[in-house]
Write a structure and sequence with these properties.
165 residues; mainly alpha; 9 helices
Length: 165
């Protein structure tokens, strides 16, 4: 498996305009470790990657993606410019969003093409509602209700996907 950690950390730092010291502050990862990753002389431990992702506000997947495959992101951002306005005017809706969440939002289109302001806000609210539901579901699957919840999910899945009406 190819290691893209160095390239992706550089990319993420550049996108956020962060120095090594600032990454250390945000992530709690030692400055020597960050420099070693940037010099490609150290392959980070999974816990280090998790701390980097969490501190930088990105999905851990950001460290495993081939940077050359990210060109679509620029295209999507150019075709949906209204999203930047929505982010600026409704920042509270984007708490804990990852780069993958923004990618999904930018890739959405309306019936005639790019999203309008109202469509972007509706998409954001829909994505947040789904996220909240997934978090609740994940929590319930860790409780004594796991078997019941799994059974209910199977029932709904069968009705909606396997044999839709």
């Amino acid at each position: 498996m190819t290691d893209y950690t160095q390239e992706n950390l550089l990319r993420l730092m550049a996108a956020a305009g962060l120095s090594v010291e600032q990454v250390t502050e945000k992530t709690g990862v030692d400055k020597r470790t960050i420099r070693a990753i940037l010099n490609a002389s150290h392959r980070p431990h999974p816990r280090t990657l998790h701390r980097l992702a969490e501190g930088l506000g990105v999905s851990i997947d950001e460290f495993f993606v081939d940077p050359s495959r990210l060109l679509y992101r620029r295209f999507d951002r150019q075709t949906n410019p209204v999203i930047a306005e929505v982010v600026e005017s409704h920042g509270e809706l984007f708490a804990q969003w990852t780069e993958a969440d923004f990618d999904e939002l930018h890739s959405r289109v309306a019936s005639g093409g790019p999203l309008l302001r109202e469509g972007a806000l509706a998409a954001v609210r829909d994505m947040n509602r789904k996220r909240a539901s997934m978090e609740k579901l994940s929590l319930l699957l860790e409780t004594g209700y796991a078997e019941l919840i799994a059974g209910i999910l199977d029932l709904f899945y069968d009705q909606a996907v396997v044999s839709p009406r």
